[in-house]
Amino acid sequence: MILPAKPHPTGHSGYSESLPGLEESAQVARKLVRTALGAWRLEELTDTAILLVTELVANAVTHTNSRVIRVVVSRPSERFVRIGVVDKARVLPEMVKPSEDLLTGGRGLLLVDALAERWGTDMHRWGKQVWAELVCEPAR
Prior knowledge:
- This protein has 140 residues and is of the alpha+beta class.
- Helices cover 29% and strands 29% of the residues.
- It has one domain (15-135): Histidine kinase-like ATPase, C-terminal domain (Heat Shock Protein 90), CATH 3.30.565.
- The chain has three helices and five strands; from the N terminus they run βααββαββ.
- Strands 1-2-3-5-4 form a five-stranded antiparallel sheet, covered by helices on one side.
- Helix 1 packs antiparallel against helix 2 and helix 2 packs antiparallel against helix 3 (108-115).
């Protein structure tokens, strides 16, 4: 069951869910993103947000040993939707150089970089959150 998180100072709630560190968790993460965007009436962001969360989950599952990840969808401000994936690894994600062989992998962060308005990593003593933000237009 997807439960809204506590409201943020902007008055918008966030959505989050802890999931197993497995590829199959991307399906639940996509549902969480759809739920949040529907609640905020930002369905026009769905396709891009689904791609972002899929890549972020895949990176966390592939490049960390986290048995559990946490997917977080929030509105840090009226202008942005933030999609983040939290894991226990303290290693920064690395974006491959476009000249490297991208046929066998390594495209995840390149896609995130291309699709998101901005993205980054918040380090914590227990792990990190890799996040991407999309610009949203408030409902009129």
